[in-house]
Design goal:
About 15% of the residues lie in helices and about 30% in strands. It is of the alpha/beta class. It has a domain at about 5-180: Metallo-beta-lactamase, Chain A. The strands form three sheets. An eight-stranded mixed sheet has the order 1-2-3-4-5-6-7-8. It has a five-stranded mixed sheet with strand order 9-10-11-12-14, with no helix packed on it. Strand 11 (about 165-170) and strand 12 form a beta hairpin. It is globular.
Length: about 260
């Protein structure tokens, strides 16, 4: 992880390029990462992390633009920082799962080895993750574009981690946002999401723009990554496609979950 300044005692905020910030949570297991992309007319929050820290305050400190959000998939650590009234773009299949995302006992998510640093001052576990805020939810699909004015992010359907997992491609800048479809460490592949072959197809899609990618932006762990790793991702995809089983590829691996 590149050096950055912790904000509000929880987020590591790193300016990666003009109009692009990484909002990392190194204090939580696996280091969930969100991104803020600013255009000329509005800003886009790519995933919303755990909600342990005050994400809305962080975002408002960085941009003075209308903000919308997109969930690369519906798992609790992509939605925790959403705030009331925010417009959220999500895949149709993932939208159907929103009602199921709430953990029955949120305190369990803070136990064991989940935390690697102290919780931020003022955090109240009894008020955390009781319900999703009232959101302005819009479905989004392959071929659509999230238009920020002078920046346009193409929506790619990249199933494998979940059935409705999305990646985003900003072609002019060469920014590739992969959510949990690809990251270093252990990528979990859902059998109900099409299994290994679906993930292999998605990895091939990511690798198809390796020559144009300037920043590879995964949803957790080390970020950003060099686009050179996409050559290895393509070779790994060939193995997944051939065997239909997971594998260990050095600094990244795949298991069926």
């Amino acid at each position: 992880m590149r050096e950055g300044n912790p904000l509000e005692g929880w987020y590591q905020v790193v300016r990666l390029a003009s109009g692009l910030w990484m909002l990392a949570e190194p204090g939580y297991r696996g280091c969930p990462v969100s991104y803020l992309v600013a255009g000329s007319s509005r800003a886009l929050l790519v995933d919303a992390g755990t909600g342990i820290g005050p994400l809305a305050e962080v975002v408002r400190s960085l941009v003075r633009l209308p903000v919308v959000a997109v969930a690369t998939h519906v798992h609790w650590d992509r939605l925790g920082g959403l705030w009331p009234g925010l417009r959220l773009y999500v895949d149709r299949r993932e939208r159907e799962r929103l009602a199921e995302v709430m953990p029955e006992d949120p305190r369990r998510l803070l136990g064991g080895d989940s935390l690697t640093r102290a919780l931020p001052q003022g955090f109240d576990p009894d008020r955390w993750w009781r319900q999703l805020p009232a959101l302005d939810i819009h479905e989004i699909a392959e071929g659509q574009v999230l238009d920020l004015g002078d920046r346009r992010l193409a929506v790619w359907e990249t199933p494998g981690h979940t059935a409705g997992s999305l990646s985003l491609w900003e072609a002019r800048e060469g920014w590739l946002f992969t959510g949990d479809t690809f990251h270093l460490g252990c990528v979990r592949c859902g059998e109900e999401a099409g299994g290994m072959r679906a993930l292999a197809s998605s990895w091939r899609r990511l690798a198809s723009v390796r020559g144009e990618t300037t920043l590879l932006l995964p949803g957790r762990g080390t970020a950003p990554l060099s686009s050179h790793i996409l050559e290895r991702v393509e070779r790994a995809a060939q193995q997944l496609e051939a065997t239909g089983t997971g594998g260990d590829f050095g600094d990244f691996a795949v298991i069926l979950s």
